[in-house]
Amino acid sequence: PTILAIESSCDETSAAVIRGGKVLSNIIATQAVHEKYGGVVPELASRAHQQNIIPVVTEALNKANVTKNELSAVAFTRGPGLLGALLVGSSFAKSFALGLNIPLIDVNHMQAHILAHFIDDPKPNFPFLCLTVSGGHTQIVLVKSHLDMEVIGQTTDDAVGEAFDKTAKMLGLPYPGGPMLDKAAAQGNPKAFEFPVGNMPGYDYSFSGIKTSVLYFLRDKTKDNPNFVQENINDICASVQHTLIKTLLKKVVQATKDLGIKEVAIAGGVSANSGLRAALQDYAKRYSWNVYIPAFQYCTDNAGMIAMAAHFQYLAGDFADQYASPDPRMKI
Ligand code: ATP
Ligand code: MG
Ligand code: FE
């Protein structure tokens, strides 16, 4: 099948074309309008999606060298995400499918982050564990097949991406904070400072505490030295990042032991973090895991992953109808 896929759950407008399971194009328009607000403004995101969607789809079809009459189906992100943002992508996909008289496929954004692993080689073997870490989610998912997944642990408060972004903001780093913090951390000493982490039962996480502890730490340190942040920015970033990564991987280690699984993947925007990628390789050696790390372009939001999910759904005959509405809190 040849499928056009659309992603519009947050602040990336993206379209991709997949044919026979091979991604032919993956066009991503990142919305710059949110920078000056230091975070995503939902109403502005919706409007930017409206402006971007036609050029992005046109470019995706052109780059793939596919005409709309060759399409077998149109896929869209149904959720989770911002309602107004999802509405733009879903309305567009529905009209496009209706106009071409071809089926519609509704995709779960979090499943798609995981299925990004099936775009390129090497592909994980089932069952595998996927640590899905992004701006809105932190989950350990037991992946039994392409379309059968179970969340076995998750954050009870903030997502780890939020912890990255909020720490970066407190340190005065520009938005989006995660990648900036990553860069500074690479120059710093991860053992310079210690931050406490919440310890939740089972495979669950808590990341709201570290935000508060960083806040108090900075308040106390800047009392003695107003230049403390500027002088220690790299070490602070490295230490916070180290703490977050250690917290994430501790539960993954526990889950691999309990379930006897050695196939471990990471997915979602925070899987672009160089510290996490390096730590996963170390753990792979220590615990003899096979680890799977997506290419950068498939870590943060993109329609390539939506297309990959849609491909499997198409083969399984899992279609949506014109009544399918966005689901901002859609679960795996
Ligand atoms: P969700 O997928 O949960 O709906 P989202 O779509 O907003 O949320 P993604 O685009 O998957 O999230 O990921 C964005 C998050 O990834 C942001 O929090 C961002 O700071 C973080 N991120 C991106 N690159 C890095 C990096 N190199 N280091 C740390 N965090 C990063
Ligand atoms: Mg984003
Ligand atoms: Fe995402």
TrEMBL record:
The annotation note on the cofactor reads: Binds 1 Fe(2+) ion per subunit.
Classify the source by domain of life: Bacteria
Tell me the NCBIfam families matching this sequence: gcp_kae1, T6A_TsaD_YgjD
Q: Where does substrate bind?
A: 132-136, 165, 178, 182, 273
The EC class name is transferase
**Keyword set, alphabetical order:** Acyltransferase, Cytoplasm, Iron, Metal-binding, Transferase, tRNA processing
Gene Ontology molecular function terms on file: iron ion binding; tRNA N(6)-L-threonylcarbamoyladenine synthase activity
Q: What is this protein called in UniProt?
A: tRNA N6-adenosine threonylcarbamoyltransferase
**Where would you find this protein in the cell?**
Cytoplasm
Keyword Cytoplasm listed? The answer is yes
What job does this protein perform? Required for the formation of a threonylcarbamoyl group on adenosine at position 37 (t(6)A37) in tRNAs that read codons beginning with adenine. Is involved in the transfer of the threonylcarbamoyl moiety of threonylcarbamoyl-AMP (TC-AMP) to the N6 group of A37, together with TsaE and TsaB. TsaD likely plays a direct catalytic role in this reaction.
Query: Lineage from the top down?
Result: Bacteria, Pseudomonadati, Bacteroidota, Cytophagia, Cytophagales
List, alphabetically, the Gene3D superfamilies matched: 3.30.420.40
Q: Which residues bind Fe cation?
A: 109, 113, 301
Entry cofactors: Fe(2+)
Asked if S-adenosyl-L-methionine is a keyword of the record, the answer is: no
* Reactions that this protein is recorded to catalyse: L-threonylcarbamoyladenylate + adenosine(37) in tRNA = N(6)-L-threonylcarbamoyladenosine(37) in tRNA + AMP + H(+)
**Residue span(s) of domain Gcp-like:** 22-307
Q: Name one Pfam family in it.
A: TsaD
GO CC terms: cytoplasm
For this protein, the Enzyme Commission number is: 2.3.1.234
Please provide the Gene Ontology terms (biological process) for this protein. tRNA threonylcarbamoyladenosine modification
